[in-house]
Each structure stands twice: as structure tokens, then as C-alpha cells.
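This entry is listed as follows:

___
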Amino acid sequence: MINSKLRQLLVVAGESVLLAGITIASVIPVSCKITEQGIKILSGDYTAPVLNSFTVKDEYSIQLEFSEKVGVDGCVVARAEEELFDSEEHSSTLDLSPALENASGVYGSVPCSVSVDESGCIVTVRCDNQMEIGQTYEFYSKISDSAGNTLTLVIPFSGFNARVPQLLLTEIQSESCDQNKTESNAGIYRNEFVEILVLKGGNLAGLELCSGYDGDTKKYVFPAIDVQAGEVFVVHMRKRGEGCISEVTDNLDQAFASYTGSQVRDLWTDVETTTLGNKTDVIILRNRADGKLLDAVMYRASNIEAWTKTMIEYSQLVDESKIYDSGDTDNAFVTDGLTKTKTFGRMGAAELQQKVLNGEAVEYPVASGPLAWELLPEPSPGTL
């Protein structure tokens, strides 16, 4: 009887120790190993370094900032060739797949050097040759901390754009519209669009158009196209129907879908589903290289008092940009009265266009607010 009770007590005690060990392991950074005596709890740092930021600094260099002091165990910068990018091809021999050849520097690598600042947290990678504007590259590296924890990085980025233009959002078609019978028979749809005015010329490479309604999953990344001051172009936010041809060359008469016009550059996203919030959204125009906003528009239905989760993230960027007094919903344009056949546009856009065509400078970024926009009776993409 005594031996039986003793065994029960030992079992209970053993279970208690095990549960205590599991609880401790769940709340503090520990590890363990199996020994002849059982499980031994090991304390220490078992968390990999965290990448806080990745920035393309200029035509030659990129910079990474980490959460703690790190070492760089080799890195490669390589051009992301379309036929090699994310390749899953493998041979029956020991040859590397095309993707791994890129990552290892066997193919397409750009000679570069690495330096770490005094804090050990900021890593700068400098390429020997100037990177091309708009060219997609990939950064490969293995990062480790003093405890031996490692972080493997594969980061795509675009070659630095030293000629970022000044752009202004000027008209929004936030909801697709039923097409007329002639267009319907021709397979042409009236889809969402964003009209943009160029206040200062430059190259569009590395710029992004993002909607808080969809988040970054449906963002539009601009191709490397030169634009001129005073030019107006249109980004169509849904690729549906006939005539959706992005005009990336000087031929501006290729597209023939709805909301396109002669001698107006039309660009299309690859998204085929609904984009933009019909009555409520936060739209930002951002430089991917440094995260800075070029312009933004916030709009809402009058009964909306708070942004959604993704819209909150974008409204915080708007807040930091100082384009609006703040990113609060109170500063958004109220869209009551907006319908499928109406758009809303920025007031004074035509005057700003005339200024830059006359060679006058415009204070940038251009301030915005709830009174900077107005409902338009009908869409007029490409015409201010």
C-alpha cells in the first residue's frame, strides 16, 4: 500500500514538474536538450535578429538596420532576370537550379562590398557598379548575432531612382460603372481609375499606388517611364475587358478601353477584381525606396467615424507626411452624393498644371484636406 501511494505521489510530482517546465518554456526564451538524466532546460538568447528596415540609399548602395548587433555571413546582389526569378527548375545532376545560381552569385551577381557601423546594427552594402533605374534586383544574405542565431534574407528591390517626379492625385473613379450597350457588346468595361498630374518631371520607377481598402496585396508598382511637367496620365485599377493596354512607350494611342483618350498615357494594374473603396478609402502614392509619400487622398462616407485596420496604417503614413493636418477621418473628403457615374476631383488642379507649364515652381507636397476635393458630374480622365 505504501509503495503504491509513493508511486502515485511520484507520478503526480513528475507531471507537475513537466507542466511547470512547459509553462516556463512558454513565457521565457529557453531551449532544452535530452540528457541521460532527462530533459535539461537551457537559458539564453535563441531569437534571430529582426530586420527593422531595408533602404535603397542611392545608385550604388543599400542599407539594412537590425534589432541588435549582427555579423554578415556573406551576401550577394543579383539582377532578377525574368527567366531565373523564383525559378524552381532542378536538374538530375548536382548543378544548381537557376534561382540558386542567382542566390549564390554564380550567375548575374553584382560585385559589392559590405560594412557594418560602430553599433553593429546598421549594414551597408555598396555595389561596385551603378544600379540601373527601375531594374529589379535581389539581395541575398545570411545574418547572425553574437549568440549564433541566424536570419536568411531574400529581398527584391528596384534600382535607385534619382529622378523622382512630383505627382498629384487629381481625380478618382472609386467604383466600376455599368457600360452602355455598344461597349458591352465590344467587351469594354468602365472600371476604377486614378488620374495623376505631373508637377515636376522625372521617372516613375519604384513608385507605388496603394489603397487602404485592398492593402499592399493589390498595390500598383509603376514601370520605369519618364514623365514631363504638366503631363496628365491615368492608372486604371482593374484590368477587365478589351483594350486594357499599358502605354509604356511614346505611343499613347494603343489603349481603347473606356476612360482612355488620345495622347493621354494609360497604365493598367494586373488586378481583375474590385479595387478601391466605393465610398471610403485612403489612397497613397509612395516612393518604395524610402517609404515617403508623394501624395495621398482620404475619403469617407459621412457615417464612417473610424478607419479599418489597413486604412489606419495608411492614415498614419498620411499623418507623418504632413500632406493633411492629420490622418483622422475628420480630415477626409465626405463622399455623400457620390455615385457610379460620378467621380471626385482635386480643386485647383488645372491652375497648378498651368503654373508648371509656365515654368513656375509649386510648393510640394501639395497640402490637402476635406475641402480640397469636390464631386464631379461625370468622369473626365486625362482632362483637368
Q: What stands out?
A: The radius of gyration is 27 Å. Residues 2-27 form the longest helix (26 residues). The chain has five helices and 23 strands. Confidence is low (pLDDT under 50) at residues 1-31, 85-94.
